[in-house]
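I hope you will forgive my troubling you with a question about protein structure. I should value your view on which stretches of the chain appear to form regular backbone elements. Here, with my thanks, is the record as I have it:
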Amino acid sequence: MSAKMKSLFETASFLPDAEQVLVEELLKRIILAWDPDFTKATPTEKLAIDEGLYQIKSGETISAEELYRQLGI
């Protein structure tokens, strides 16, 4: 992280919680206006997502409910 970004975060940390939420929302809007595909997965992330979906479909994983049952939770 750049020194400018560290300074920005340190400055924002002095604000009350409600104003920090506003700063966060403003930054999100600025980033999305600058790069509308910001939320799109990178090629590496897409590969990991596709692999996970394949594992789910092929039965290589178990549901959270089954895991809880096996753990007695």
About this structure: The chain has a mean pLDDT of 89. Residues 17-34 form the longest helix (18 residues).
